Amino acid sequence: MALAALLLPVVASAQFSITGKITDQSGEALANATVSITNPNINTQTDGRGSYTISNLPAGTYAVKASFIGFQLATKSITLNGNQTLNFVLTNNVFTTEEVTVTATRANKTSPTAFTNLSKKDLQKNNFGQDLPYLLNQTPSVVVTSDAGAGVGYTGIRIRGSDASRVNVTINGIPYNDSESQGSFFVDLPDIASSVNNIQVQRGVGTSTNGAGAFGGSINIQTTTRRDTGYADISSSAGSFNTFKNTLNFGTGLMGGKFAVDGRLSQITSDGYIDDASSNLKSYFVSGAYYGKNNTLRANIFSGKERTFQAWNGIPDYIIGDNTIPNHRTYNELGMMDGGKRYADQVDDYLQNHYQLLYDHKLSDKVSFSGALHYTRGKGYYEEYKKNDSVSNYGLKPVNYGTDTISTTNLARRRWLDNYFYGVTYALKYNPQTNLNFTLGGAYNEYKGAHYGNIIYSEQGIGVGPNYQYYRDDAKKTDFNIFTRGEWRLGDVILNADMQYRRIYYSFLGYDRNLNNVQQNATLNFFNPKAGITYVFNENSNVYASYAVGNHEPNRDDYTNSSPNSRPKPETLHDFEAGYRTAGDVFKGGINLFYMLYKNQLILTGALNDVGSPARVNVDDSYRAGIEFDGRVQATKQLSIAATATISTNKIKNYTQLLKNYDDDTRVPIFLKKTDIAYSPSFIASGEIAYAPVKGGEIALLNKYISSQYLDNTMNTNPAGLTATGDNRFVRDRLLKSYFVSDLRVRYNFAVKHVKNIALGVQVNNIFNKEYEANGATYPDIEGGQVVNYNYFFAQAKRNFMTSVTVSF
C-alpha cells in the first residue's frame, strides 16, 4: 500500500518549486529554520545543510518568509514562472533565545568532543511509536534492546558498551537519570520524542553537564522551542503485536509577537512480542512561553503514565534453544502460578510528573544568562507473584496451626518507589571578544525517595493483615556542581578548558560496621577537569584532541547492600579523544579515536561482601580503546548513503571471577590476565540508504550489525579442571551471538487544499526475519563437579511492521 501511494502522482495543478539555503551572517547553515508562504499556506523546515524545498506551486507571486530562533525574520518576494532558487542570510535578533538553556552543556562544531546532532526532522522519520533509544539506534557506538522485544515498554541503551547508569541524560539541561540507580527509564516518558526539538548525543566524558557522571556518553534533549506559526498535527500508527500510537500536537505560534503555547497528548498500547509483555502508556506535554526584547520565559509541564506487564527476566537458554516448543522465543516465566495460569497483575505501574520553569535573559551583547527551576514527582510500584516464598524473607516467623507449620506460602507483593526531585540549574555566558568566550554554570538538586514493600495477599495465613509493610528505606541525596568553560581562538587554533566540581551527599538505610541496618550517609567530592585543542582548516572541517576526567559514584545497591568495610569506591575515567570532521554539500562525516582508561571500575565478579550480598567490586585497571566513523554522502539529489562504524577493544587486566560451588559451599576462582568487558561488542555498525524517487517520497533501508559480546567477564573460561555441562542442543555459552538486522522505511508527504501536509509511512522491522537476542544475563555456578550455565536471553521480534498517518494543519 505504501509503495503504491509513493508512486501515485499528486493530483494538483502545482508544477514549480522554490529551493534554497538559509545561513547566518558567517555563512554557517541554519538547520531547522522555518520557511513559509501564504496562499497556499505552506510551512517547511531546512535540513541539516540548511537547505529547503517548497514544491508543487502554481505560477504566481509569493512572499517567502524565513525565520530562525535568535534571528530576525526575513521576507522576500518572488515571481514564480519556473523552478527558482531563493537563498536567505539571517541577521541576529534582539530577542533572547532558548538555545542558551542547552548550549551551556553542549558541544559545538569546533569542540574537541565526539558528538552527533539529531534534528526534529531526523527523529520524526523513525517515530512510529518505539521508545526513544530506538530513535538513536543509527548513531555511532550505540546498542539498543527491548524487554518486550519490539521497542515498546522497557528498553535499554548502551554507548561504547556503557549501560544507561553511565550515560548522562538531561532534558533542557535538567538531569533525568534516577538519582539512586542512575539509570534513565524512557518508558516513564512515552512518546517524548514527539515533543523534542533536537538531541545531541555525546560520546565519552564530553562537556561538563548536570546530574550523573558521563562515562559512556551523554544524551542532551531539548524539548519544543518557538514556532512562529500555529499548527496542529494528528498522528496515528498501527502495526504488529496490536501496537497503536495516537498523538495530537498543537501550537498557537507566536501571538502578538510575545506569547506561544504548545501541547501534546499521546497514548501507546502494545501486546509486545514476548508473551504477556503488554504496555499501556499515556503522556502529555504542555508548554507556554513569553518572548520579550531581552528575555524569554518558558514553563513546561509534562507527564508519563506507564503500566507494563513484566518481561524483565528474559528467556532461559534451554527454552529459547528448543524450537520444538511452540513459543520458545516468546516464553515469559514471570508470574506463572500453579496449573500454568499467569498472575493477572504481574505489572510495573508508575506515574511521573515534570515541572520546568526556564528563563533566558540577554544582559548585554556580551553577557547572557539562563536559569531553570524544576520539580519531578514520581510514584509507583511493581507487583509480582512469588511462588512458595519463605516467610522469613519478610521478617516473619513460621506460623503454627495445630500440627501444621506454615514457613512458606504463595503470595503477591508490591514494591513501591515514592520520590521527589527538585532543584535549580543555571548558566552565565560571557563573550568579551569575538575570539573568546566563557561559561559559568552548575546546579543544585535534591532527591527524596521512599522505598517500601507490601504483601498484598498470601495463599495461606501467615499472621499479617492485607498491605503488611515488610520493609522501608527512606533516602535523600543532594547533588551540587559548578563548572566553568572557556574557549579562546588564536588564528586557526582553538583552545578549550573545562573544569567541574561536584559534591554529593547521600543518606540511606544500610549496614554499619557492626552489620546493623541503620540510617547512615556518605559524602563524595569530585573534580572533573577537561582540556582540548582544535585546529580549524576552514569553516567546515577541523581536527581536534582532548583529555578529560570523569568520576562516577556507586549506585543505591552498592550502598545499601554493603557495610563501610566492604563498600566500593567511586569510579574514575581518564578519557583521551582525537578526531577529524568535515561537512560539505556532498559529504559530511568524521573519524574519532578514543582511549578510555578506568580506575576502580565497578563490576560484578561473583564475590559476596561481608553482608552476604553479591557485590560489585572495584577492578584496578580496565580500558576501552577504539575508532569511530560516521559519514553521509549525498550521491545525487535523490540518493543519500549514511554509515557508522565502531571498532574497539574493551579489556580488564588481572581479573578474578568467583563461581559458587554448591558441592562444598565455596567460591572457586577464575583468574584471567586480560579479559573482555561484558556487553562490549568489538564491532558496531549501522547504515542507511535513502532514495527519493518522487518529491515528498522516500524509501530507506536501515541496517545494524552488532558483533558477539559476552554476558560476563570470563570470556567463557571455566575454573581449571572443570568444563561446562548441560544439554548441548539447548544450553549456550555465556555469550550473545552477533546479529545483522535490516529495516525498511517508506515515507510519502503531500499537501491538499486547507491541509499543510499529509504524511504516510510504513516501517518493516527485521525484514529478513532474523532470530536474534540483543541482551541477556548469566548466573554460572558449579554443581556435581561441573560448571552449569544459567543463561537468560531477551529475544527480539522477528519480522514486524508499523504504519502511520500524520495530518498537519
Description of the molecule:
This protein is mainly beta and 809 residues long. It folds into 3 domains: 2-90, Immunoglobulin-like (Sandwich), CATH 2.60.40.10; 99-223, Ferric Hydroxamate Uptake Protein, Chain A, domain 1 (Beta Complex), CATH 2.170.130.10; 231-808, Maltoporin, Chain A (Beta Barrel), CATH 2.40.170. Helices cover 4% and strands 59% of the residues. It has 6 helices and 48 strands. The chain has a 22-stranded antiparallel barrel. Strand 10 (142-146) and strand 11 (155-159) form a beta hairpin. The chain is globular and about 95 Å long. The two termini are 24 Å apart. Residues 109-217 form the TonB-dependent receptor plug domain. Pfam families: CarboxypepD_reg, Plug, TonB_dep_Rec_b-barrel. It is a multi-pass membrane protein. GO terms for molecular function: siderophore uptake transmembrane transporter activity.
Task: List the topology elements.
Layout: H1 2-7, E1 16-24, E2 34-37, E3 42-45, E4 51-57, E5 60-67, E6 74-80, E7 84-85, E8 88-90, H2 99-103, E9 114-119, H3 120-126, H4 132-135, E10 142-146, E11 155-159, E12 167-171, E13 174-175, E14 196-203, E15 217-223, E16 231-239, E17 243-251, E18 259-270, E19 279-291, E20 295-309, E21 315-316, H5 317-320, E22 347-362, E23 367-390, E24 399-401, E25 404-406, E26 408-433, E27 436-458, E28 468-490, E29 493-511, E30 517-538, E31 541-552, H6 556-560, E32 571-583, E33 587-608, E34 614-634, E35 639-661, E36 666-676, E37 683-691, E38 697-706, E39 709-710, E40 724-725, E41 735-736, E42 739-752, E43 755-765, E44 773-778, E45 781-783, E46 786-788, E47 791-795, E48 800-808
Parallel strand pairs: 1-7, 1-8, 12-15, 35-45, 40-46
Antiparallel strand pairs: 1-4, 2-3, 2-5, 5-6, 9-14, 10-11, 12-13, 14-15, 16-17, 16-48, 17-18, 18-19, 19-20, 20-22, 21-47, 22-23, 23-26, 24-25, 26-27, 27-28, 28-29, 29-30, 30-31, 31-32, 32-33, 33-34, 34-35, 35-36, 35-37, 37-38, 38-42, 39-41, 42-43, 43-48, 44-47, 45-46
Region (Disordered): 554-573
Family: Belongs to the TonB-dependent receptor family.
Subcellular location: Cell outer membrane
